[in-house]
Amino acid sequence: MTSWLPLSPGERSVAIEVLVHGPLSRTELARRLRLSQGSLTRLTKPLIESGLLVEAADAGGPAEARQGRPSRPLAVVAESRSFIGFKITEDVVYGVVTTLRSDAVARLDRPLTTHDPGEVADLLAEMTRELGARFPALAGIGIGVGGLVRDRAVVGESPFLRWRDVPLAELVGERTGLPVVVENDVAALVEAETWFGAGRGLDRFVVLTIGAGIGYGLVLGGRRVPYPEENRGFARHWIVDRNGPLTPDGERGSAVSLLTIPSIRYQIRAATGHDATYEEILARAAAGEPMAARVIDEAARALGTLVAQIANFAMPQKILLAGEGVGLMDVAGDVVDATIRANRHPLAAPVGLETKVSDFHDWARGAAVLAIQVLVLGSVQG
């Protein structure tokens, strides 16, 4: 298959614009990129010849009116390459295969029975071979890990996997023969939502995730803002209520102590002497059981306070709430909304809060988007 690599900076800009916002007419594409028609023609010609772009047969609108043959909008050939995205949790590896436009076309999950880096890399390679048998045009692998990742290659620290300085990209690359990108899982999810999801086309956008931990990602000018403390557990020290609970994983009254699934389960276990799943606790709270209702209401107030603080200081056009803990909104969404209003100026515009019911395959898809950005398009967004 003909390769379109390497892309020049100009070709990359064209490819990204069509990938994220296409199909686009040449006139619209030139306007967006502030290019002359001649410059655009020079940049698009090799992309069409290599098979990355194609003239769309039908983009839902009329062809451009120009002298001579009408010009059809340009679109990306989404199926020209496939990408694998992996999300590694403490006990499962979730895998997806996506097209160039990040549409998930296959899933494959495997239990994780060891945290030995070499054996984890062996498992990822085995999953890659199984997926590659069905999708031979694999262009690369993206891996999302909860923890600190350096240079999109080395897991500097992962509390869930108990890893330090693990060269995961090298380990998996040696076993698969494919280029590999490793990134913090929240950062990968933010990139995916910015390009293809809730943040598409927005200038200021925030992703807040709740689940086993708390993740935060900020997008300004349409680009994710990287920061050194990414996923170093900052929410353990993000104090929401000084009189709130103390849990093993966070400071007293911190966002982690009030809002994460392990902390909510810990509070119920400490109060009742019995363990319960997060879903059971939510159901009990919905049914009016006093202890569960109190813990869930405190979590809802914590979430409302966080959202209001983010809105007050980052001033995003939209906040996306995602993660495996978003079921909180179904049970106590009214408490979250009331707390947001109480912590905002009375005349402030409503917060654009969107809730996304997601699973770990969405996180894996985010890792695949990182592979698309870095390995194929050469984009360095973060």
UniProtKB/TrEMBL annotation:
Family: Belongs to the ROK (NagC/XylR) family.
Provenance organism: Streptomyces brasiliensis
InterPro entries per the UniProt record, alphabetical: ATPase_NBD, ROK, WH-like_DNA-bd_sf, WH_DNA-bd_sf
SUPFAM superfamilies reported in the protein's UniProt record: Actin-like ATPase domain (SSF53067), Winged helix' DNA-binding domain (SSF46785)
PANTHER family named among the record's database cross-references: BIFUNCTIONAL UDP-N-ACETYLGLUCOSAMINE 2-EPIMERASE_N-ACETYLMANNOSAMINE KINASE, ROK (REPRESSOR, ORF, KINASE) FAMILY
Superkingdom of source: Bacteria
The protein's name: MarR family transcriptional regulator
